[in-house]
Amino acid sequence: MQQINTETVELKKAIIDCNYRIIEINSRPLALKLMEMGCLNGMIIKKVSAAPFKGPIVIKVSPNENLLALRYEEAENIILSQIDN
């Protein structure tokens, strides 16, 4: 059974290769954009990589294993909770 950590973190500060659940998306246009790409509140994601100097952040969305690249500024608006496996 997966235990959800009650502490939240922005995607830009998330640890690479840890599983997170999307708690909130603080930007309506971004929420719509992510929904069109199959990424919704409550879904499990994993931060795969982050480019230096506030470059793009790549996430893997479960269960379909899609990879999405997001701008650093967009990652500031995605609130996550870590899932303990």
Shape: globular
Using the CA coordinates, give the radius of gyration. 12 Å
Cα separation of the termini: 8 Å
**Secondary-structure element order, N to C:** EEHEEEHE
Regions with little confidence, pLDDT below 50 for 5+ residues: none
Report on this structure.
It is a single chain. The chain has 85 residues and is an alpha+beta fold. The chain has a single domain (3-84), classed as Ferrous iron transport protein A (FeoA) (SH3 type barrels, Roll), CATH 2.30.30. It is built from 2 helices and 6 strands. It has helices at residues 28-36, 72-75, and strands at residues 3-10, 19-25, 44-50, 57-61, 66-70, 78-84. The chain has a 6-stranded antiparallel β-sheet. A hairpin with a 4-residue loop joins strand 4 (57-61) and strand 5 (66-70). It is globular, with a radius of gyration of 12 Å. The chain starts with a strand and ends with a strand.
Tags for this model:
6-stranded antiparallel sheet, SH3 type barrels, alpha+beta, 2 helices, 85 residues
Which secondary structure elements does this structure contain, and how are they paired or packed?
Layout: E1 3-10, E2 19-25, H1 28-36, E3 44-50, E4 57-61, E5 66-70, H2 72-75, E6 78-84
Antiparallel strand pairs: 1-6, 2-3, 2-6, 3-4, 4-5
